[in-house]
Each structure stands twice: as C-alpha cells, then as structure tokens.
Amino acid sequence: MKKKDKWTNPGKYTPCNIGGQALLEGVMMRGKTSSAICCRDEKGELVVYTERTSERKKWYHRWPIIRGITSFLFSLVGGVKYIWKSAEIYAGDDEDMKLGKGGMIFAVLLAVILAIGLFIFLPTLAFYLIFDLAINLSEKVDPNVYILIMSLFKGVMKVIILVFYLFLTSRLKDIRRTYMYHGAEHRTINCFEHNLPLTVENVQSCSTRHARCGTTFMFYTVMISVFVMALITWILALLGVTTLSVQAVVNSEGLGKVLYNLICMGVGLLSLPFIAGVSYELLRLIAKAPDNWFFRIFKAPGFALQALTTKIPDDDQAETAIVAFKKVMEMDADESIPTLDFYEMTMTDARAFIEKKYAEAGVDDPSEPDWLLVNVLGVKRNQLVHVKKLTKEQALDLKAKVEKRVQGLPLDYVTGKSDFLGYEINVDERVHLPRMETEVTALEGIMLVKNNEYKTVLDLMTGSGCIARAFAERTIAEVSASDVSDDALEVARTNLPEAVTLIKSDVFGNISQKYDLIISNPPYIKSSEIDGLQKEVTCQPRISLDGGEDGLDVYRKIIASAPDYINDGGALVLEIGHTQAEEVCALLAEKFCSIKTIKDLSGSDRVITAIKK
Fold it and tell me: Do 379 and 325 lie in a common domain?
C-alpha cells in the first residue's frame, strides 16, 4: 500500500516524546527510558534489538542551548551505534560486509571530514578564490560590507551543497531505501500523535513529513550558522581581526588572506556546538508550536528538504517502524521488560508469535505453546512463568519448530519427543506417534501380566517401542519387541532398556518362540480413507496406518497365526478402531475365549483382550 504523501495531517494532534532514526533496512525508535531497533533480515523476518537508556534528568538536559548541545552529541554517538547495530543484520552471513569497531570508527571519521570539507572548507575556499583572489573584495568595500557579503555567500553555498548532497544521495538505491524507512518512521510517529491505532493501514495514511526531523535540524543549523558566523566575524572585526589587519601582521597580502580565511574556518568549527544548541531549541519550539500559517513558514523549508530525505515506504517498512515504536512504548511503560539483542525474544513476544502463527494456520490447541516452549527452553511446564526471555539460539529454534508445526507436522515430530504413560519417548517421522488411546491398550496388557503372573511378553509391531517401554518399566516380565521396519527398530532402541530384545519381523515371520502375552497396535485405517485424514495423521508412516480395504487385513494375519506363538492360557491384546470391535471379536472366536472389549476414556471401543483356548 503506497499513498501519495501529504504535507500536513488534518485534525488535532498531541506531540509525543518518542523520536526515531532510519537505519539500514530498519528503524530505531527512542523513548524516555528505552530504545528499540527493528530490522528485516535476509529472510524478510523482523528482528528487534532493545536497550535501556537513562532518563534525561541531569542539569545539562534542562538548560537551554546546553541541552541542545548535549542532545546533539548524544544523538550523534547513539546514531552511529544504532547504524552499526543495524549493519549486523544488513550484512547477514556475509562476513566481508560486516564492519568491525575499527571500520566503524574510520567510517565516522571519514563522514566528519566530509562534512567539514563540504560545509566549512569548500565555502571558505570558494569565497577565497572568488572574492579574495579574483576580486580582491576586502580592499574595495567597507569591512562591514565585506563581512555581510562573505556571510551571505557562504550561507547560500552551504544551502546549495546541502540540497545537492541530499538530492544525489536520494538517487542511490540503498540510500533511497533508507529514506523510505525514514518516511515510515515519520508516518508511524504522525499516526500515534493523531491518536490513530498503530496499524499498517493507518500509518500509511499519514504524512512522511514531521517537524521534529533531523533534516529540518540540518537546515536550521545551516541557516543559523550564517547569522552566527556573521556575528562572530563582525565581533572579530571590532576586535581588529580583519583581512587587512592579518595581512599587516604577516606582512603578506596573499598569506594574510589565507590566514584570515583559516581563522574564520576555525571559528566556525568552534562555534558548531553553540549553533547546534540554538538549532535544537528552534526545532523544539517549532515542533511544539500550533499548526497555523505563521509557524508553517518556519516549518516549510524543513518540509521541503524532507521531500528529498523521506520517501513513501512500502507496507513492510511501515510494519518495521510500528514494531520498533510499540516496543519502546512497552519498555517505557514497564521497566521489568528485559532488553533484547537481535533474534532474542521476550516470553511475551514468544507466546504472541506462536499464537499468531497458529491462528493463521488454523491450529487450535491452547496447550501446545507451553509444550513447545518447554521443549525449546529445557524446563518444566511450571517453570515457564519464571523465564523472562529466550536467547538467540532458543528463539531461532522456536521459530523453526513453529514453522514446521504450522505446515502440518505433529507437535511430537516437531519436538522429537512424545509422552506415553509419563515416559519420554523419542520420535520422528520414521515411527507412528504414541496416542493416549494406546495407553489404555498398554495398561490392559500390564494388568493381565500382573494378574496372571505372565513371564514373557511380545510387543508386535512395536513402532517407537512405547508399549514395550511401559511393560519393561512396570512389570518383571521378559519383554521382546518386533517390527518389520529397520527405521522403527532404530528409534525403538533409543527408548528401550537393553534388556528388551528387538526382533525384525513381518508379523510372525521371524518370531521363533512362544510368549505368555502378545500385544499389538496394528494399522487399522481403511486404505481409501487415509488420504482424506488430517495432515498430522497422513505425514506418519503409511505402513503404520494402512489396514487394507476394510481395515482388518493385519488383524486377520495376527489372529490366524497368534495361537502358534502364545503359550497355553496366554493372552492376546489388540488395539482396534472404534467401529471394529464386532468384526475383530468374530475373528477371534474360533481360537480364543474370554474375549472382552474395553473402552477408552472417551467411551469408544478401543481394546480387545482374549485368552488362547
């Protein structure tokens, strides 16, 4: 969304104490006690850096002019630091683009030299070449006229240089993007000051011009320097320091003119802090002044220059400025909020991130954010309340896992962990995920083992090994577990004690002994129904889901052969689909007795137990 800019915003507004600065692919906002940088990284994701800043209550923050000088110095130092921070994100993984401290210091010194050269040395040199060497003005006019002409010439030169410099930089692609972020910064502040909710749409309806802008400050500095330098030069003349007097002292016309211009240039450098202080006071006054025709006269030149340094931002840039602004508001309002380096997250932001992503993807499980955070942070659920923020590594891990989850991967696959009867089970896409319903299956089998003092157990089609783990932990029986999949057996090994024997077998193909109890959770979904299930189900191994045309293929194989592998008086325990009890019981009737159907916690048929005849 890009809207044509307006010079002013209609309606009343309330100035706020938050200011900003455009950075490399980002925006910095500063409030009373905090600052925030929001940038977009190479992937287009927003990353935030925050810090606490001291509230400006010292005496030099209150005295006119002096507070302007200190604000200018603090802004200069802080601005360089924030640009450096944003450069970390701008450079991305390209180490050659990253500036170390030495590189940044060199860049700052180069910028200072360039500024002095353009706005002090160049106008002085031009005046010297034109009016001293070519015209010899000092000997043709009164000293006061000479000072007036010199001041006006240098002032006009500075304005021309400033406009030309801003125009050239606005033509550069990367600088133009920074100017777009500058526009986003202004629009966001304007939006807030006009009491509009901070949405991208509202921000994009506001002006890119703002009275409290550094561009306006630069213009005021240039214009005030004209008057200040004229006054200082006039005072020097009253004290006897003129071109002619300097020439007389050094007894050289040419050298005298050079020295006089160097004196003027030196005085100009020394007066810069005072000029900055006066410019700050003027900017402050005009920014707080009523929005009427009189004060618009003073705002107009700065607004005109802002046409060069602010460009209409895109929606992503507006969002970046909004995030930085809101973060400063939050931190100013609550001093307990921790500071963040790039890619770190507060717990509040982490939860908000998960909830937003889940809402967009239609994932509706209020407990999942907690379990994701538990996995990422390595803490217990009741300890989450004590965690204030996530480190960079934790935040990146969380984002990666949320992205997998919203793409349809089950939470247990995302975290690599599942819970089964209180035991932590390692899982991945090679195995079917343990389900709460299967806990009922395992508990029924464990009860049979204990009640009948069974000594040996086979977990047929073990998958992750969760059922075998429960038997190994809760009984003294000798436990074996089988599966046709090498991948499944590899995962199961990580979940089972060494005492549990693993066997690769397709149903009973490689089983060589008899057991007191055989338990199995076989695939029982009809082949035609699998593709229509939720992605969280279909992403699991198809071999663990597909029960054939009617869902009973594997039950027929197990029931037909099971009596040959169960000791007399032994039991068979099968998990079933909630509509399959009658059919499975019919299959068992020929060779098994004491057939029972057990319901799960939701009241659905879930487990069948049977005793070998």
Answer: no
Mark whether 349 and 498 lie in a shared domain: no
Return the closest-CA partner of residue 198 out of 307, 327, 303. Answer: 327
Q: Tens of pLDDT along 296-351?
A: 788 888 888 888 899 999 999 999 999 999 999 999 999 889 999 999 999 999 99
**What 3-state class would DSSP assign to 419?**
strand
3-class DSSP state of 5? coil
What single letter denotes the amino acid at residue 331?
M
> What gap in Å lies between CA 318 and CA 467, rounded to an integer?
54
Coil/strand/helix, residue 606? strand
Side-chain half-sphere CA neighbours of 529 within 13 A: 13
In the structure encoding, which two tokens stand for residue 512, read together? 């060589």
Contact 182, 310 (CB under 8 A): yes
pLDDT value of residue 10: 43
pLDDT (mean) for 163-186: 89
| Domain of residue 231, residue span | 19-333
Cα gap 369→185, rounded to integer Å: 33
Same-domain pairing of 366 and 498: no
Residues 6+ apart with CB under 8 A from 494: 426
Domain annotation covers residue 139: yes
Largest CA distance in the chain: 130
Nearest CA to 317 among 184, 172, 190, 202? 184
Q: Cα dihedral sign for 252, 253, 256, 262? A: negative
Q: Between the CA of residue 77 and those of 72, 104, 331, what are the distances in Å?
A: 9, 12, 22
Among 591, 594, 598, which residue's Cα sits nearest to residue 610? Answer: 594
Domain count, the chain: 3
From the number of C-beta atoms within 10 Å of its C-beta (0-12, 13-18, 19+), residue 455 rates as middle
On whether the CB atoms of residues 425 and 466 are closer than 8 A, the answer is yes
- Report if residue 215 sits inside a domain: yes
Q: What is the pTM of this model?
A: 0.73
For the cut 90, the answer to whether the pLDDT of residue 185 exceeds it is yes
Question: Does any domain span residue 177?
Answer: yes
User: Other CB atoms closer than 10 Å to residue 112's CB: what's the count?
Assistant: 11
**What's the rounded Cα separation, in Å, for the pair 317 and 314?**
5
Angle, helix 253-288 to helix 293-309, in steps of 10 degrees? 110
218/162 Cα distance (integer angstroms): 9
Q: What is the DSSP letter of 140?
A: T
* Residue 146 sits in the same domain as residue 201: yes
H/E segment holding residue 51: strand 46-52
Token pair, residue 355, equals 């909830």
- The CATH number of the domain where 461 resides is what? 3.40.50.150
Is 7 contained in some domain?
no
| Alpha-carbon gap, residue 463 to 607, rounded angstroms | 18
Reduce the DSSP state of residue 94 to 3 states and report it: coil
Query: Same domain, yes or no, for 60 and 144?
Result: yes
CB atoms within 10 A of CB 364: 8
